[in-house]
Amino acid sequence: MAEGRKKVYFERVALIGLGLIGSSLARAIKRHGLAGEIVGHARSQETRELALGLGFIDRAADSAAAAVKGADLVVIAVPVGVTGAIAQEISPALDPGAIVTDVGSVKGAVVDAVAPHIPDGVHFVPAHPVAGTEESGPEAGFAELFEGRWCILTPPPGTDEAAVARVEALWRAVGSKVDSMDPRHHDMVLAITSHLPHLIAYTIVGTATDLETHLQREVIKFAAGGFRDFTRIAASDPVMWRDVFLANKDAVLEMLGRFDEDLTALQRAIRYGDGAALEEIFKRTRAIRRSIVEAGQA
Amino acid sequence: MAEGRKKVYFERVALIGLGLIGSSLARAIKRHGLAGEIVGHARSQETRELALGLGFIDRAADSAAAAVKGADLVVIAVPVGVTGAIAQEISPALDPGAIVTDVGSVKGAVVDAVAPHIPDGVHFVPAHPVAGTEESGPEAGFAELFEGRWCILTPPPGTDEAAVARVEALWRAVGSKVDSMDPRHHDMVLAITSHLPHLIAYTIVGTATDLETHLQREVIKFAAGGFRDFTRIAASDPVMWRDVFLANKDAVLEMLGRFDEDLTALQRAIRYGDGAALEEIFKRTRAIRRSIVEAGQA
């Protein structure tokens, strides 16, 4: 085995949660030969059997604790609201020297919930692959999901450097770019780039759901005018997103407050026919789009 | 010439406004051989010369009135706020029997502004091709823009049926599906499918523009989390959209009011940790997405 490859190789990966992200990571690990074995656990037996049938796990475990026994890497890929409970459950079963990581979209609350359950000699490296689709479940995953996308690590100060390096190497091996930052800073950045856009998309599609019947039929027919993009975002997994908003409450409310002030100002400009104010705001936003295009993120 | 083609053929098309929509329609008319000649007008000489160089008009006119002389079809493709002024200017120069149409995203205000200037014997058929990109200007146009997209006609009661049929045939010939409805109903439907999504996208990108510098850099870097879709929408033409919001004020404020109530309810659920309410709302929105996918609009 080549030296470069050996560095990222794990003997046994325990995967807790077999949804879009977990199953995509398992598929990518298999494709790139990054693990000897993947043991998977999901709450429902149906999901475990589906995962075995799809072949992205080698073995299914009846409990999270059973899954992590003998694993040198544990990936928690469940809605962020239950990450702490999973950490508590697996805590006594973790092998000394094991690395525990997660894939949650919120990092501050996850670090707070998981860290107290990590035994001495086990390393916790929180991670957030900024990737996904509006689909969910084990069948929705695919090995290429993380290619060219960012994965953000938020290791608390003092985290074992070798463990961080191995998690970083894993994400690079599945095609991601890797950055690291403070968990609270991560949560503020993601509040505006991801959480607020999802909240707004859910809201406007919800507003359309309540429209008078004759309007609603035509909203569906003429969705291509801009609304369609929002419905795609708003089709994302409800439980995952419920947990994101609950876990990142402070940052989301802060950004929502700023958004609301700005929307009120636009509303007022429309009401009083202030075309100059509208045009000025609409022109400013082009600069950010240009920066995103230049950063190769468009 | 085949009978089917003859029906949609115009001897001379006058095109007032040479931006994304106007230049795309001109290109499509040329590609499908739907006109003998296209005479174009734009306010700036630079744009007129650019259009001649790109070849989607055969001749440039110094004024809108000069452009429409001898035209059997006049297409007004300018921001909706100036449509009325154009109609007033061209009124004395319109040929008897000519058809005047437009491409505005708002129909009630356009009908009110244009109809009084249409002489007896000239036919006004308001139209809205529900198509576009975030690009603007004569170079951004392309002949395929309208293929598979809806074009909504909103002819006032009593409009000459043959004229409506010719405008419908034109849009079908460039690949569009055609529907017709009352102008006020159109404005309500588009307020939610297009105008409100654009307003919200402009707002959230504006909010990001005002972020602290260290956050803003990372917003651009991690834009792929959902924010990126909003920046694309918010890169649309500022003047066109300023006019849309001013011209469709009532419907936009009505829909914005509903949206704002719904967003406040979500904000409250987040603040008080009401996970059940969040999950319920997030689940409801999936149904509309499914309808859009089934309607072939996704």
Query: What's the helix count of chain A?
Result: 13
Radius of gyration of chain A: 21 Å
Q: What structural class do you assign from the helix and strand content of chain A?
A: alpha/beta
Question: Which strand order do you get reading across the main beta sheet of chain A?
Answer: 3-2-1-4-5-6
As for the CATH topology of the largest domain in chain A, it is Rossmann fold
CATH superfamily of the largest domain in chain A: NAD(P)-binding Rossmann-like Domain
Largest protein interface, residues of each chain: A-B, 90 and 90 residues
Helix content of chain A: 40-55%
Task: Looking at this protein, list some descriptive labels.
6-phosphogluconate dehydrogenase C-terminal fold; six-stranded parallel β-sheet; 13% strand; disordered N terminus; Rossmann fold; homodimer; alpha/beta; 13 helices; 298 residues
